[in-house]
Description:
The protein is mainly α. It has one domain. The chain contains five helices and no strands. The protein has helices at 2-22, 27-52, 64-88, 92-98, 102-130. α2 packs antiparallel against α3, α3 runs antiparallel to α4 (92-98) and α3 (64-88) runs antiparallel to α5. The termini are far apart. The mean pLDDT is 91.
Amino acid sequence: xxxxxxxxxxxxxxxxxxxxxxxxxxxxxxxxxxxxxxxxxxxxxxxxxxxxxxxxxxxxxxxxxxxxxxxxxxxxxxxxxxxxxxxxxxxxxxxxxxxxxxxxxxxxxxxxxxxxxxxxxxxxxxxxxxx
Length: 131
């Protein structure tokens, strides 16, 4: 059922994209597009949470930190689109351009994840060297 709700939002994406393209200056078009993106993102997050619960439907060897960072990455986009809805009440163009802010945010999250992975591998390498 979760996948069905996700696919419904994906199926409506071309419609909302066309509205945004034709009426890019209207707040309603930006809000509708952002709602569609946020809803699809939250559905995808729910699917991930369901699948990753107790490593139910994912690799059994996947580390807890990898699961945590995947969850964070899944939540960032829909939250960002919800924030852009609020920005649309200030300025429609600002709301649209705020979506580009996802790029540096994902780069930052990726770097934090890489540092976390390096910190986790250092102690295990030290243990191997002692043996």
